[in-house]
Write a structure and sequence with these properties.
The structure holds two protein chains of two kinds. The longest helix of chain A is centred in the last third of the chain and has 28 residues. Chain A contains 20 helices and 28 strands. In chain A, about 60% of the residues are buried. The radius of gyration of chain A is 28 Å and the shape is globular. By secondary structure, chain A is of the alpha+beta class. Chain B is built from seven helices and five strands, in the order H-E-E-H-E-E-E-H-H-H-H-H. Helix content of chain B is about 35%, strand content about 15%. Chain B is α+β, with helices and mostly antiparallel strands. The N and C termini of chain B lie far apart (about 45 Å). In chain B, helix 4 packs across helix 7. Chain B folds into two domains: about 90 residues, Ubiquitin-like (UB roll), CATH 3.10.20; about 80 residues, [2Fe-2S]-binding domain (DNA polymerase, domain 1), CATH 1.10.150.120. The chains are: A alpha+beta, B alpha+beta. Chains A and B meet through helix 1, helix 3 and helix 18 of A and helix 1, helix 4, helix 5, helix 6 and helix 7 of B.
């Protein structure tokens, strides 16, 4: 029996606890969806379009249907029960929603569009038969570039919509009541000799989350509830969306996300593949499995970013910003996923960054092209925005001949100005940008590197040194439900948790957020241990199953700790409040005379006490409860945050650029972040490392490419360059801490900071190295060819001018 | 050895090969020693070693991330050498010795030095790529007892991880080597 002697001596929050998850993951005892084999299970193979825009003129399934092992072949016409795939964010009244069916009917709109499905007794047989499905296409003109898609004579992705414009959405500081008129301020700046106006067009490359576990789905319709296992980040949301769109009711469907191998937003989706496995399982009344190949993942799992940013920044010559105007064109791809149309507008709240900007406007045009849909990827709209403002801060520094740190310092919010109401209508609760930046400069040896840079410029060193800067804030912890409602988002942003007090003194935590590598089982046990005084080892996590965790809003937007963790803390505190009257009864004391400290009720001024495990056992026995007390200590809590979470930090990159080959080498990377109170510093550091590497990937290596006729030319991991170990240096990380004031633990989010800050830091560094040569912009990724070409172009321009 | 009693439809030259012929997969009895145990299954010639391990033998500790040899998640040891199980046919493994992550340590108590180092150094997050790293590193440390950080980085350059940014995997390599050296010293001390 657990006694007070077992109570942990020190607080769990703040300790780098080794992860509970790892022993299982390290020894191959795992539950990936593709591991599942069920009796009688059949396998699916999908027939995908090899062309980017076409009318389907015929599909002959005869040979496929007759092939060995084939159980059935279906086209879109054969599945009248299929429902249109859902979207969850109606961003504006003018939003145009193209029909996206699990199986295409009549037309295809991008390479990889799904035109038929084959079910067979083995995966091999299904694949073979899929190759025998004969589809005839009448090819149509394609449009691959979002700017070209806006031209009057552009081919239309969806002719029935009459336009390639999916939606427009805007905000400005006049309407928000947060500042002046941006057009007026820019006109005034243009007329003012003491101001500068900088206009730039920046490009956000199209990238993909590239989770290492391919998506996999198994549906078993043979139980009372139809059960779907899916490699998804969002089992709860998926259940609701499938029930709303496909022929299954919510109470008849159970969704399980077992072990999930990475997500990064890429598995925040309700996919047509999930719908198809469900539909075929319902048709056949047999368990059905589908696991995508990597090629299928590249050509049908959603991509991300892909924006053209037209930016206008006005500032006084001392560096003080007077206005910022953002005009965005965002590539949706051919269809809308659940959040596709809304991702760019999340950036609207972040283009102002950490700065005090007196006049601001954001306008976004969402555009259709014949590509895979874009949707959430680690940061979702905010990395794009941070890239825009942080690139512009460097442009401003260059224009005015100021140090890039100094120009930022002259504009950022001072520590004594928090809470700060921003021009974009948010309230930043806390932060100290000076502290984080000063620490980063010191770690980096900023002055020393600037001196080295000057020497290498002086000596015309063929390898030039560049210093890249990014200071940032992130909008995380999605989200206050009311704010989501005001944005026409299709759900709330609360999170739910319940705590089950077991009679032996152990605890089960059922959490509505579901992990795929974040270490929930470990960090959540640390939270509960501190609240209930239960040893870390005695707490286990249940998650990712709509049957065992009935309420949840799942994992995305860095919400698991700041929203989900607070629901857990709330549930734990309810356990304590339920325990108090029983403790008082057992101690024969007045409840108000009890003091509670981490698992122990003590009668004030005495040493008589009862622990939570003792009370849990007494409650379970129920032999001696106060009159009318319900014999249950279990508690639950739904937490809806009042505000977002705003992690911040300063990233500094030292890049070496070989001007003869164009090769960019990342020599050093320092990041100092303020993510509030750290629950588990080891896990926080891991999140930072991973996010940084993905951000560096976007900046230097990764790009989804399509040919002019719509072929995906980066459809494998040999063509799409996810960073390997030699591609990234050792990072130097540190943290400063300002407490979040919007939750009782003072914690902030961390997961998306690296992908947000690294791209502008890297590109600013590359340009810093090359500006003396006349290079003013290089689009991501900064490949050797692009860097070399930019140098050549700048040299010939210089030569031509002289 | 391939089952020679079944004639191969592909080798038939007197008539055109039809799709149905191709689908009539020639089956082979494959016997492989996996994690020290002789395992047999009758499989088609095209069965990948990765699928053979996962689906025929139900050893699901080996993961498949790309099936084109880039990600390294499926790496197993074939006669001790790291090998992409997705780029090898099961029939090619005939009479060879295969070690998967389950064979390195299948319980918390029996985890090997590399598995223990990964747990200590937070060398994994989602864990999907991890078995490929663990097998690769285990083989390397068999004949490299004290790698440098650069050598560790080079060692894992054939494996993709999307979660960790490799920082803690490199630490895990160095720590695994250290654990292994400690074990050797302790064993030698015990014998002395």
């Amino acid at each position: 029996m657990t006694t007070t002697a077992d109570r942990p001596d020190t607080a769990e929050v703040g300790q780098s606890r080794l992860r509970k998850e790892d022993r299982r993951l390290l020894t191959g005892r795992t539950r990936w969806t593709d591991n599942l084999e069920l009796p009688g299970m059949v396998h699916l193979a999908l027939v995908r379009s090899p062309v980017a825009n076409a009318t389907i003129t015929g599909i002959d399934t005869t040979e496929a249907a007759a092939a060995p092992g084939v159980v059935g072949v279906w086209t879109g016409e054969d599945l009248p029960e299929q429902g249109a795939m859902p979207i969850a964010w109606t961003v504006s009244d003018n939003l145009k929603v193209p029909s996206l069916m699990p199986l295409a009917v009549g037309t295809v709109k991008h390479v990889g569009d799904v035109v038929a499905v084959v079910a067979a007794t083995s995966k091999d047989a299904a694949d073979d038969a899929a190759g025998m499905v004969d589809v005839s296409y009448d090819e149509l003109l394609v449009v691959m570039d979002p700017i070209a898609a806006l031209e009057a004579d552009s081919p239309l992705v969806h002719p029935e919509l009459g336009t390639n414009v999916c939606a427009t959405w805007g905000m400005d500081s006049v309407a928000l009541g947060t500042g002046g008129d941006v057009e007026e301020a820019i006109r005034a700046a243009e007329a003012d000799p003491d101001q500068v106006v900088i206009r730039r067009t920046l490009r956000q490359n199209r990238i993909t989350p590239a989770f290492v576990e391919p998506r996999s789905i198994v549906v078993d319709p043979t139980a009372e509830q139809v059960t779907m296992w899916s490699a998804t980040q969002v089992p709860h949301i998926l259940r609701i969306l499938l029930a709303m769109t496909q022929p299954v009711d919510e109470h008849e469907l159970r969704v399980i996300a077992p072990d999930v191998g990475g997500g990064f937003g890429g598995k925040l989706q309700a996919t047509r593949e999930e719908a198809l496995v469900l539909l075929i399982a319902l048709r056949l009344q047999l368990p059905v499995k589908y696991t995508e190949t990597r090629m299928e993942s590249m050509q049908s799992a959603h991509h991300a970013r892909d924006q053209v940013q037209r930016l206008t920044l006005a500032a006084r010559k001392d560096g003080t910003i007077t206005a910022f105007d953002v005009d965005l064109v965002a590539d949706m791809g051919a269809y809308l996923g659940i959040l596709t149309a809304g991702i760019p507008l999340l950036g609207g709240f972040m283009f102002n960054g950490i700065y005090k900007i007196p006049a601001y406007r954001f306008f976004c045009t969402d555009v259709f092209t014949n590509k895979v849909m874009t949707d959430a990827y680690r940061g979702a709209g905010k990395p794009e925005a941070t890239f825009g403002i942080e690139r512009m801060m460097d442009e401003l520094a260059v224009e005015l001949g100021l140090d890039p740190i100094e120009v930022r310092r002259r504009n950022w919010i001072n520590p004594d100005e928090f809470p700060y109401a921003t021009v974009a209508g948010l309230t930043y609760d806390s932060g100290n940008y000076d502290q984080a930046t000063d620490r980063a400069l010191e770690l980096f040896d900023y002055d020393g590197l600037r001196a080295e840079q000057a020497r290498r410029r002086e000596s015309n060193d063929p390898v030039q040194l560049g210093i890249g800067v990014c200071t940032f804030v992130e909008l995380s912890g999605l989200a206050p439900s009311r704010v989501l409602g005001s944005l026409n988002y299709g759900s709330g942003g609360w999170e739910h948790a319940s705590i089950r007090m077991l009679p032996t003194g152990k605890v089960e935590v059922a959490a509505g957020t579901t992990p795929h590598g974040q270490g929930h089982a470990t960090a959540f046990a640390q939270l509960v241990s501190d609240e209930l005084g239960i040893p870390f080892e005695d707490i286990t996590l249940i998650s990712g199953d709509t049957a065992t965790v009935p309420r949840g809003m799942d994992t995305y937007g860095s919400r698991s700790l700041v929203v989900g963790g607070m629901a857990i803390v709330g549930a734990a505190r309810r356990v304590v409040e339920k325990a108090r009257p029983l403790a008082a009864h057992l101690l024969e004391a007045d409840p108000n005379d009890l003091e509670y400290d981490r698992g122990t009720f003590t009668v004030r001024g005495t040493d008589t006490s009862k622990t939570i495990p003792e009370i849990a056992l007494a409650m379970w026995l129920a032999h001696d409860l106060p009159d009318g007390m319900e014999a249950c200590l279990d508690s639950e809590s739904t937490f809806d945050p009042e505000n977002f979470s705003y992690p911040t930090g300063t990233h500094l990159a030292a890049v070496e650029v070989d001007t003869e080959t164009g090769k960019v080498t990342l020599r050093d990377y320092v990041c100092v972040q303020d993510v509030g109170v750290l629950v588990n510093p080891m896990i926080v550091d891991g999140q930072v490392h991973g996010g940084l590497t993905q951000g560096i990937g976007q900046a230097m290596y990764e790009e989804i490419r399509y040919s002019e006729d719509g072929q995906l030319t980066s459809g494998s991991l040999a063509d799409y360059l996810v960073p390997h170990a030699p591609d990234v240096p050792r990072y130097r990380t540190d943290t400063t801490v300002t407490h979040a004031t919007t939750n009782t633990l003072g914690v902030k989010a961390v997961g998306e900071t690296g992908t947000t800050a690294a791209p502008p830091a890297i590109v600013n560094g590359v340009l810093d190295a090359l500006r003396p040569l006349g290079v003013t912009d290089i689009t991501m990724p900064t490949t050797p060819l692009k860097v070399w070409s930019a140098i050549q172009a700048a040299r010939s321009e210089k030569g031509g001018a002289s | 050895m391939p089952d020679t009693t079944t004639s191969s439809p592909i080798s038939t030259t007197t008539s055109a090969v039809t799709a149905a012929d191709l689908l009539a997969d020639e089956m082979h009895d494959v016997t492989v020693t996996v994690n020290g145990v002789a395992r047999s299954a009758r499989v088609p010639a095209r069965r990948l070693l990765s699928d053979f391990l996962r689906h025929d033998l139900r050893l699901t500790g080996t993961h498949v991330g790309c099936e084109h040899g880039v990600c390294g998640a499926c790496t197993v040891l074939v006669d001790g050498s790291p090998t992409r199980a997705c780029l090898m046919f099961a029939v090619q493994a005939q009479r060879h010795e295969i070690t998967t992550v389950e064979g390195l340590g299948s319980t918390p108590e029996t985890m090997n030095h590399v598995q223990r180092a990964f747990a200590e150094c937070h060398g994994l997050q989602c864990g999907f790529c991890t078995p490929g790293f663990v097998t690769t590193i285990t083989a390397y440390l068999e004949d490299h007892d004290d790698p440098t950080e650069d050598e560790a980085r080079e060692l894992i350059s054939g494996n993709l991880c999307r979660c960790t940014g490799y920082q803690n995997i490199i630490k895990s390599v160095l720590r695994a080597a250290e654990i292994k050296r400690e074990e050797i010293t302790r064993d030698e001390g015990g014998r002395a």
